[in-house]
Amino acid sequence: MNSPMEHLMIQPAKTMMTIRNQLMMLCMLMLTSCMGVPDGVKVVNGIDANQYLGTWYEITRLDHSFERGLVNVTATYSLRDDGGIKVVNRGFNPETKQWKEAEGKAYFVDPKNADGSYSGKLKVSFFGPFYGAYNIIELDKPYYNYVMLCGPDKSYFWILSRTPQLPYPIKQHLIAKAKELGFATDQLIYVPQSADIVDYEAGRHVRH
């Protein structure tokens, strides 16, 4: 039988273990919520990672703090030595006349398919060990000329193109589909892409 002193020593230890377990569960829940796919939305399957590399121009997005006020926004993807993807997001702030750039890393979440392709569910990080969801929900295959993306919920949404402008019928088709999926398309920001600032180097994609 434990002495009163031993009992007092055991209780704080149990309490600390309980708090630690609760914190671990909370962290796991937060990470899971950051890595999900919104309800009613499916990711594209059969993605060729090499075809996806290169430069993409941001056509439209929902507002968020880390891109607020930026124009001429691009995302450039290249292979990392560890098999992941290097991500460089770049945009121009017309008020400060300065470029803003962020470098991160991304990894496909699911294992490779039998043919070496992937599902369109990735995790991306710009801040150390913390990852967020990067979901490819529409993709121009096999040409990889445009893509529609979202985050873990419907407050994060982008349309990217291999060229600074996306033809109107394609853009409207994508926006109509996004509206059907429940994204707030009436709040979309259409990103100016100016030839006076950006060097329009084509991304790596199929041209024929």
Overall description:
The chain is built from three helices and nine strands. It is an alpha+beta fold and 208 residues long. It has an eight-stranded antiparallel beta barrel. The chain is globular, with a radius of gyration of 21 Å.
- The number of E-state strands comes to 9
Please give the count of helices.
3
Termini distance?
A: 81 Å
Shape: globular
Oligomer: single chain
The helix content, as a percent range, equals 10-25%
Mean pLDDT level: 85
Topology as a string of helices (H) and strands (E): HHEEEEEEEEHE
SSE-based structural type: alpha+beta
Low-confidence stretches: 2-10, 21-33, 197-203
The neighbouring-strand order within the major sheet is 1-2-3-4-5-6-7-8
